Amino acid sequence: MLSGSVVAVSRDATHRFSKDNQDSVRLLAGLGVEGDAHLGVTVQHLSRVARDPTQPNLRQVHLIHAELFDELRDAGYDIHPGDLGENITTSGLALLDLPVGTRLRLGPDAVVEVTGLRNPCRQIDGFRGGLLKHVIGRDEAGAVVRKGGIMSIVIEGGVVRPGDTVGVELPAAPHRPLEKV
């Protein structure tokens, strides 16, 4: 069975780029992270609200693998959990390789379902100049590679803390690769 661990949990009640680290966060089924600006049944990302505020919120919980921070550090960027706006920072799990519909058990109670890839925007360069080209790149074949984490919805609520395990339940085959949401 695939598994990893929670390194950090973060939230922010306002629409800022980074989120503050917490001792714990509470996930609310069908809504997201309690006290976070992206909490809601319908889309909360400001640019998406402007286009269509009735679309479902497939971006309730944002997860990033801590291994990305190591890669960015090697490129000269000092990035820490919460800096890139994620709610949950994980370690030991290849988040970007998971298929759509994967369920992640976070700690003893919470379960999220993976909906797709985060699509980092130019705001990331406002946070740290030139960072966008390190989180969106191209593979050897020229295809776009998005490294900015994954998005999910909350299936079962619960409290998540640093040190919690992350269990993985893959959906039935055939698996669909992640696309931006």
TrEMBL record:
User: Which SUPFAM superfamilies does the entry link to?
Assistant: PK beta-barrel domain-like (SSF50800)
Q: Extract one GO molecular function annotation from the record.
A: pyridoxal phosphate binding
The record's listing under Gene3D superfamilies reads: PK beta-barrel domain-like (2.40.33.20)
Q: Which residues form the MOSC domain?
A: 20-169
- A Pfam family (short name) is MOSC
Which superkingdom? Bacteria
Q: What is this protein called?
A: MOSC domain-containing protein YiiM
